[in-house]
Amino acid sequence: MGARLLGGIIGGAIGGGIGAAIWAALIYFAQIELGVLAWGIGGMVGAGVAIGSQGDSGLPYGAIGVVLAIVALGIGKLGGGALMANEFMQSDEFAEAMTVDEELVISYVADEVVEELEGNGLQLEWPSHVANDPMYVPAEASDYPAIVWTAADSRWQEMSESDRQLYRDEAQYELDQMRGVIAGVVTADVAASTISLWDVLWIGLAVCTAGGIAYRGGTGDLT
Questions:
Q1: How far, in Å, CA of 26 to CA of 34, rounded?
Q2: Are 80 and 28 spatial neighbours (Cβ–Cβ below 8 Å)?
């Protein structure tokens, strides 16, 4: 049974991999999803398990079919989202947003000024769009109180080029770290935005189909 069980796993993985690749490609190239394709992926997984196990049947094979179907469907969903996220991250819009310009670098100096002033007990009056949004991260002159930006800009002008480069390097490092986070967020957002009640029903049908075919060893015998 061991060799056939391994064969079932390999066969199911191959079937699921092919199905997941097709689904991811549809999401990316056509921006569409077909619920019936999820069902088809379940069938491919179940058939792969049955073929790989050489027709062996039973609960272990059914369980393999269920697990591999869920994995394949998840990879297909996230794979399509990852492709779209990668396309976005290659765009000119994203490249511009991730560029370290002088205003962004000076904002690092401004953050230090804020810390010093508030540490001395000064109550700063922030622009309304920053004050009203606790999640907002200041990054340009209009985001800071005028007194803060004036002091930060003055420090920047008086700073040596080597010191300026240290701030540039810090800003670039943090932007680079954000790339991975942004890719994950966009991927998850694309995957989540395409899930509907019908998707859940089709996915449930796909999982049941995969498990059923694998359990029966590709036959119609349920016993």
A1: 9
A2: yes
Confidence category of residue 1, pLDDT binned at 50, 70, 90 = low
Whole-angstrom CA distances from 134 to 28, 33, 130, 137, 178 are 35, 37, 7, 8, 19
The dihedral of CA 188, 190, 191, 195: what is its sign?
A: positive
Asked whether residue 220 carries a pLDDT value surpassing 70, the answer given is no
Any idea which of 4-8, 66-70, 81-85, 99-103 has the lowest mean pLDDT? Answer: 81-85
* Beta strand segments in the chain, E: none
Identify whether the C-beta of residue 81 lies closer than 8 Å to the C-beta of residue 188: yes
Non-local CB neighbours of 81 within 8 Å, separated by 6+ positions: 27, 186, 187, 188, 189, 190, 191
Dihedral angle sign, alpha carbons of residues 7, 8, 13, 16: positive
Residues 6 or more apart from 85 whose CB is under 8 A from it? 182, 183, 186, 187, 190
Q: Could you tell me the pLDDT band of residue 222, with boundaries at 50, 70 and 90?
A: very low
pTM: 0.62
132: three-class secondary structure by DSSP: coil
